[in-house]
Amino acid sequence: MSKIKIVTDSTVDLTDDEIKELDIHVVPLSITIDGETFLDRVDLTPSAFLDKMKASDELPKSSQPPTGAFLELYDELGKDGSEVVSIHMTGNMSGTVRSAESAAEMSESRVTVVDSRFISRGLAFQVLEAASLAKQGKSLEDILAAIEEIRNKTNLFVVVDTLENLVKGGRIGKGRAMIGSLLNIKPIASLAGGEYTPVAKVRSHSQVVKYLSNQFVEDVKGKTIRGVGLVHADGLKLAQSLKNKIIEKTGFEDFDIAETTPIISTHTGIGAIGFMYYTD
Fold this sequence. Notes:
This protein is an alpha/beta fold. 42% of the residues lie in helices and 25% in strands.
C-alpha cells in the first residue's frame, strides 16, 4: 500500500510541534513590506511582522507560492511511490489552491488538491485530521471523506479591531473609516462558504465576547466539541477575554491562543482575532 503525505500552506497556523509530530509539509506564501519580500513564518515571525506593519505607511502585499515550489515538493514526496494530499486556504481569498492545482497537473506524483474553504486553525482542523489518518495508514478515500465532514461542521469568525488596513487596501474609503472609528465599530464576519461575510457590527470588546460566546454555545448545543482555535494579531487581551468566557459558559478549555500568520494579519490589521471550532 502506498503511503499518503500531507501538504498545506503557511496560513494554517500550526505549531512547530504539530508539523513535526505528524510530518506535515508546509509551503510558505510570501509577503512584501517596504520593498522587502519575506517567506511567511520562514524569514519573518508574526510578532516581527506586526512591528514592521505598524511602522509602514503602505499595506503589505501577500503572494501565493509559485507553482514551481509546489511542483518540486510534490515530485520529491512521490519519489517513493507515495500519494500526496495537498490542503489549502480558501480559494476565494488567494490563488494558492490554483497554484497547487497547476503543479498537481504537471507532477509525476499522484496529487489530490483540496480547497479547505477556511484559513488559520479552520484549515488546520482538516490538515491535522488528514495527517493523523495518513499516519494510521488510512486510504485516500477515507481521508478525503473525513476532511469533508470536518469542513461541513466548521465555523470561523473574524473580528477586525481597526479599519486602517481596509482603508490602505482600498476596501473602504477614509470617510467611512473615520465614522466607523468614531463609533468604535468592530465588524464581525464569518467565513461561511469560504467567503468573508459580515454577520454583525458591535461597538466594544465586551460585545464581541458576548456575541461570539453566545454563538458558540448555540452552535455546540447537544454536540461534541472536536476542536477550537483562537488566534490574534496583537489582540491577545480580547482573545483571552473570549477564552475565559467560553470556559465559563461551557467548561471547554482544551485550546490555546496563538499569534496568526503575517499573511492573515496583513488583511485584518492590528488587534484582530480569529475564532473557529468544529463539532461532531
